[in-house]
Fold each of these.
Amino acid sequence: MISPELITAQTKKWITSVVIACNFCPFAAKEMKHNSVHYQVEASGINSECLEVFLRECKRLDEDDTIVTTLLIFPNGFSQFDDFLDLVSEAEDLLESNGYEGVYQVASFHPQYIFGEAPVKDAANYTNRSLYPMLHLLREAQIEEALERYPDPENIPDNNIHFAREKGVQYMQMLRDTCL
């Protein structure tokens, strides 16, 4: 079993070597530099337990404004992408039913991530292919603030897709896998 510290270190390396280096999220470098990202490794792979931890992380964000964003990492569960998508849907429902809609937003990353109807071997999938299944909790107010200062934020997804496809599947997979 891999320790939570190693999982966190690998995730930080993935953020630095993939997310920031490829500019998939132009806002990530600032938060990494300011150490305002919280990493929570959850050993359970049971939906109900993971969703309890998800709500706890929402409460942590409520209470600690020095944390801008949280990555909730599931190294022992949700290896099947469809099972993970069920968790994502349930987490989004929890945001709504607990009064967090418009306060927090959830983004998702998974080692087998596939965008909609994209082919499995589309390099663009690597923009969201992480080392471990994870939910990313973001503060909506800070997202809006960051987007206001960023030129043409609507082009970020297309730029990411173009970059990943230009580099190709082998390169993107190698880049991610070197973080393990």
Amino acid sequence: MSIVQPAAASRAPDYDVIVVGARTAGSPTAMLLARRGWRVLLVDRMTFPSDMMSSHFIHAYGVARLARWGLLDRLLKTGCPPVDRLASDWGPIQLTGTPPPYEGYRFGVCPRRIVLDHLLLQAAQEAGVEVEQAAGVTGLLGDADRVTGVRLRRQGRAPVDVTARYVVGADGMRSFVARTVNAEEYHTIPSLTTTYLTYWENLPMDRLLIHWRPGRCVPAIPTHDGLTVVLSGWSHDEWRRYRSDVEGNYLETVRTQTSPEFAERFQDARRVHKFVGTHDVPNFFRRPYGPGWALVGDAGYHKDPVTALGISDAFRDVELVSDALHQSLAGERTEEEAFGHYQRRRDELAEPIFRYTIEQARYLPLTNMQMLVLRALEIDDNARDRFFGVLAGSVHPDEFGSLSSVATLLMRTGLMPGGAK
């Protein structure tokens, strides 16, 4: 462990937990801990409301958590439309379905981050969290054995040392906390895609639609204010060419790598925002805990945005890490027991969808077997909905994609010998 600042003088900690990063992982973590009575400081170098690049969508298993936290109705009242239809277009095959419910919820939402992040921060404050905006963490306090706090720099003021029993890094895939404690990384796969996005008016959508083409991907999703966010993805090995003319390459991709119906409607759309994008989207897991510290959200586990699962996964892991923190702080379990369970459960839930995401992010041409399965899904309504349930969290990826499940589907639809006639 590499602590860049000396330990603070021996005294009672200022807080039980300091959470670094106040977006979709940090604010809910702080909120849930404060609701259990813990003293929490939430810090972020940005001020809110503020925007950021994101794949935006929250699938049903994320929606269920917003409901559990009492925040779903508040989000819907901001004008964020529920999206209960998912669609995938591979050119010769187009599938549309509604996934099976997850804890009673069949829809997702696609909020603008400038709305969602501010709403989550406000909920944390309402729970009693102390919030420091425009405050950067420049170092961790501690010694060779344990993190004991942070060195905080507020705008225009001298640095101050703030202590806590735990420091949580919710500060994204480039997490300062993770780098400082040298968190072990595993299942590492370099960036596979490069993506740019912007927002369009006069392009109404009633579903999440993803166009898949070899080397290309074009999702389109309805969001706030009647707008549609459209993303244009290329394979990562072409990112320099994409960056050389972002607008031209984005527009050409949307016009030529989508369905004729969508491309025609896109001609009348009007762009209302600048292009934003990145080619730096590594895939990895990090060990999410150590003496006096923990990681949550993209700081602890990051994958390509092509499946738009980042926010939903962050919400899931928020509940896991807040449980571990509570159990350790309250003395209900040892630190190793509480956080060891957190890591095991996180990985158990995340690894199957991580593998699925990596496969999708390669943007490879369909194999003959994949084409056959998609043809079967065209025929079988129930199987098609279950296919979309993989993203919604209501169907396990391994359950749907196992050899026996595929064989049963092909036989039931008459596309495999021994099946229906």
